[in-house]
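Quick one:
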Amino acid sequence: MSDAIVITGIGPVTALGVGKDAVWKGLQSAPPAASPVTHCIGGEQWETYPLMAAPDPLPAIEGISEAQLSAATGQPYSRDLHLFAAAAKLALADSGLKYDGQNNRIGLVVSHENPGFDEYTRQIWRALEMQPANGHSRLQHIKGLYAQVEGAGYATHSFVLLQQLTLLLKTHAPALMVNNACSSGLYALEAAAQWLRNGHAEAMVVVCGDSPRLLTRYLWLQAAKTCAMDGIMRPFDLQRSGFVLGEGAGAIVVETLESARRRNAAVYTQYVTGAFYSDAWKLSLPSVSPHLYHRALQEAVERSGRKPSGIDLVVPHGAAAANALGLTTQVPTRE
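Output:
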């Protein structure tokens, strides 16, 4: 059991609340209703769609405020970064993990679908509104637009969000960005576990989330006929009508059981193993003929050394899409 991997800290920032106690209370009560979001361009309404939003403005958690984020990173305020940093700080505080910000072996695995893309798109639209092509050649016009948005364009690279988080958390062990759509969280957890087992870090912070506040995400889902316009998700229901976009971030602290015992940390649970397969088929339609779902489940149970009868909970991918299509071909599972 010397390489057993355990979870010692939890940090959620969600529409249900901020922090594990608030989220637990939210789960025990009636869920909040999705709020309508209206997107306008030049004063004209484009679309209105439902969103389960995190608190707005986001609270300053553990000294993290909008002004402090911008000052620390030298970049314009990023709501994605605020969400991730707040969740990570909550998880670290919950775990009781203390470390030297100048010298430590704390690592980071981050999962985000497309960091910086929404802000880049907003700035492009704003530049188009403010700078019409009057009297300019096409090249001059494009150059002028690019000059207004080039900083935001660079921030769409995933390593930028990763670097900003390491800067705020002051972690110095390996850092990795993961994007495998709906299966990203499990890939991130497995990556963190492998680094711990191989001795590359003493503890890892795994943080995943999203802030889909821009219209583009909704338009893509709408085109795929996977949006629930009434703001209610009904997975596994004959009356299901699609997704409801949600905003938030969640973080956990994982470490070896030996490390947790050494500092007398409370342990929530153990991460035993995972099994991962790829359909190598369609983007949004799972292939059922190779039986990869069954193989992944079977392999996870076999690798865990447990019996199937000892499994207490199975959490399936409840996409709630009316056409029964998921958004990922990756099929990971864990005990």
